Amino acid sequence: MIKIDGLKKTYDGFKLDISLEIPEGQVTGIIGRNGAGKSTTIKSLLGLRKIDGGKINILGKNVDELTNKDKENIGVVLSDSFFSLELNLNDVNRILKKTYKDYDEKFFNSICKDQGLPMDKKLRDFSTGMKAKAKVITAISHKTKILVLDEPTAGLDVIARNEVLDLLRKYMEEDPTRIMLITSHISSDLEGICDDLYFIEGGKVVLHEDTDVILGAYGLIKASEEDFAKLDKEYILASSKTKFGYEAITKEKKFYMENYPNLVIENIGIDEVITHMTKKV
User: Fold this and answer.
1) Which of 47, 92, 111, 198 is the most buried (most CB within 10 A)?
2) Is it the case that residue 164 has pLDDT exceeding 70?
3) What is each CA distance from 119 to 101, 134, 135, in whole angstroms?
4) Contact between residue 155 and residue 162 where contact means Cβ atoms under 8 Å apart
C-alpha cells in the first residue's frame, strides 16, 4: 500500500496539503492542471523533496526508512529526469544490470525490440515518444511491485501516448498485486487505465472518486435560477452562475432524473468535472 497522510509542503508561496491512499492491486491517478501540485506530491512521496509535515508510508514503512532492497520494488518515471542522453540502450542495460538484483535483461531487450527502440542509438537521437517508452521500460525492467509515474505521456501525440499506456496496462495485468500511481493533466489518458482519480487544484484534493462512478453516475445539471433554488442540493458537488441560470455537477444524476423529470441533465466528461470543481477552490 501507498499512504500519504496530511502531506504538507510550502514553497514560493505555494502550499501543498495532500492525503491519499492506494491499496494493493490498484491503479490510481492524480489529475490536475499544470502547477496544481502533482509533481511535488510525487517527488515528496519518493523522498526527493523534504516535507514540512505529514506522513508518507510505502510498503508498510515510512519513506525515510526504506532500505535499498525496498527501493528496488519501486519503479519511477519522472518528467524531468532520465539517463544521460549521450548513452544508448546498451549502456542503460549495463547500468540496470549492475543496479538491480531482480533486473530482467531478457525482458528489457525483448520489449525494447518489440517497441522498435534501437539499442545502439544515442538517447538524444530518440523521438519524444521513443524516450517516453524507454523511460517506462526502464522503470518496469526489474519487475517492480510499485510504479510511480509523473506525466509519462506529456508532450506525446495520440499514437505514442496510447503505446505508452498499453505498455503500462499490460505490465499491471501481469500481476494483480502491483500498485501504480500516475499523474497527468490529460483526462483521457487516465480514465482508460485508472481505478480511481484524485483531482487536485492549488495543492489540495478537491475530489476523489472511482473512475467508473465519474463516467457513469456524474452529470451536469442546467437550470434556471428558480428551478435551481428548488433543488435538493444533497448530491451537488459544485455549481456556478451562468447568464441562463446555474450549472451544477452532481454525483447522482439518476436521483435528479427521477425526481426532477423536466430538469436538463447532461452526461459529463472528466475534463468538465475538473473545470467545474476547480472553480470551487
Assistant:
1) 198
2) yes
3) 22, 10, 14
4) no
Q: Which three cell numbers stand for residue 26?
A: 490498484
pTM, rounded to two decimals:
0.89
Closest CA to 181 of 31, 19, 57, 29: 29
Structure-model confidence comparison of residues 192 and 182, the more confident one: 182
Measure the CA–CA gap between 219 and 268, rounded to whole angstroms.
Answer: 5
Bridge partners, residue 221, by sequence: 248, 265
Tell me the C-alpha distance between 137 and 133, whole Å. 6
| φ and ψ at residue 9, rounded to 5 degrees | -150, 125
Within 13 Å, how many C-alpha atoms sit on residue 99's CB side? 16
pLDDT digits (tens, 9 = 90+) for 204-222: 999 999 999 999 999 999 9
Give the 3-state secondary structure of the chain: CEEEEEEEEEECCEEEEEEEEECCCCEEEEECCCCCCHHHHHHHHCCCCCCCEEEEEECCEEHHHCCHHHHCCEEEECCCCCCCCCCCHHHHHHHHHHHCCCCCHHHHHHHHHHCCCCCCCCHHHCCHHHHHHHHHHHHHCCCCCEEEEECCCCCCCHHHHHHHHHHHHHHHHHCCCCEEEEEECCHHHHHCCCCEEEEEECCEEEEEEEHHHHHHHCEEEEECHHHHHHCCCCCEEEEEEECCEEEEEECCHHHHHHHCCCCEEEECCHHHHHHHHHHCC
Tens digit of each residue's pLDDT (9 = 90 or more) over 6-18: 999 998 888 999 9
